[in-house]
Write a structure and sequence with these properties.
The protein has helices at about 10-15, 30, 50-55, 55-60, 65-80, 85-100, 115, 185-195, 215-225, 250-255; strands at about 1-5, 20-25, 105-110, 120-125, 130-135, 140, 170-175, 200-205, 225-230, 245. The protein is an alpha/beta fold and about 260 residues long. The structure holds ligand BJW. Belongs to the sirtuin family. Class III subfamily.
Length: about 260
């Protein structure tokens, strides 16, 4: 494993030679847009809670209004922020490689839509989407108006969780994957296939703590496919990498992909 603090000619050459690239992204890629990462300390009403404690079915069952409001506030914040140069450069690279008959396949653990708003196509949102809703009882999908919180302000007091208008029995929940829940099987299999097919795999802005997403880079390792991490910090996955680029995705991805 080689640790780099800038994009060197070697690594740029690796990126230029690749025809089929797979990217596994995590919360860090959206950090420079202003979306807090999952494992940093929260602010305002939320500072007493860790994100890991709120992202569970048990937390929702115990205190649905609290968990509901946390998600609506995060959705409001995500709507208010913009894609950053990390998202934009991956989208541009995807278009450029597509034109040359290659591909950049993006697999994200993020529940935001910043890759898409940057103009990229995303193969799989492994942990779902923060703007999708369904009933906890009957599973009926629901569309809701955008939250009217100001995501930049101190988060509001808990709001009541809306009931399902379809079965009139259950409450609505966000369409995300909580701890202890299965990932969408087709999305996970498509992601695994993209990593197996790739001739270069980038792992960007993820701590590599959460399974099974964190095991996807092992599929590249098994095949000897070059693995490159972009993250300012060492992670659980760093040891698997050929190169660890120690910098932010907003700075390093434009240099790597141009
Ligand atoms: C920058 C940056 C910048 C900062 N530029 N970088 C095997 C062993 C042990 C446990 C398990 C296991 N298999 C399964 C489990 C249990 C569990 C798990 O993994 N637990 C771990 C905590 C140990 N997994 C599950 O429960 C999964 N389900 C499952 O396995 O089902 C099968 C099953 C069912 C029943 C019983 C048993 C098994 C489901 C996992 C779902 C995860 N969901 C969440 C919440 C989504 C909704 C929401 O957003 O609220 O997904 S948790 C949270 O973590 C979220 C994220 O997508 C995910 C990953 O986090 P990520 O993206 O890595 O963010 P951070 O914050 O951790 O890291 C940010 C990184 O960015 C850092 O490294 C920074 O340095 C970096 N960074 N600024 C680049 N500018």
């Amino acid at each position: 494993m080689q640790v780099l603090h800038d994009i060197t000619e070697d690594i740029r050459a690796l990126a230029h030679r690749a025809r089929h690239v797979a990217v596994l992204s995590g919360a860090g890629i959206s950090a420079e847009s202003g979306v807090p990462t999952f494992r940093e300390v929260q602010a305002g009403l939320w500072e007493r809670f860790s994100a890991e404690d709120l992202a569970t079915a048990e937390a929702f069952a115990c205190n649905p209004d609290l968990v509901w409001t946390w998600y609506r506030w995060r959705q409001a914040l995500i709507q208010q922020v913009q894609p950053n140069p990390g998202h934009l450069s991956l989208a541009a690279w995807q278009r450029a490689l597509n034109r040359r008959g290659g591909s950049v396949t993006i697999v994200t653990q993020n529940v935001d839509d910043l890759h898409e708003r940057a103009g990229a196509e995303v193969l799989a949102h492994l942990h779902g989407s923060i703007s999708a809703y369904r009933c906890v009882d009957c599973g009926e999908p629901h569309e809701l108006p955008r939250p009217d919180y100001d995501g930049f302000q101190s988060p509001p007091e808990p709001d009541p969780t809306p009931p399902c208008e379809h079965c009139e029995n259950g409450l609505l929940r966000p369409g995300v994957v909580w701890f202890g829940e299965m990932l969408p099987v087709e999305a996970f299999e498509a992601a695994a296939e993209a990593i197996r097919r790739a001739d270069l795999v980038l792992v960007v802005g993820t701590s590599g703590i959460v399974q099974p997403a964190a095991s996807l880079p092992l599929l590249a390792l098994e095949r000897g496919t070059p693995l490159v991490e972009v993250n300012p910090e060492e992670t659980e996955l760093s040891e698997l990498m050929d190169y660890c680029v120690r910098g932010t995705s907003g700075q390093m991805l434009p240099a790597l992909t141009s």
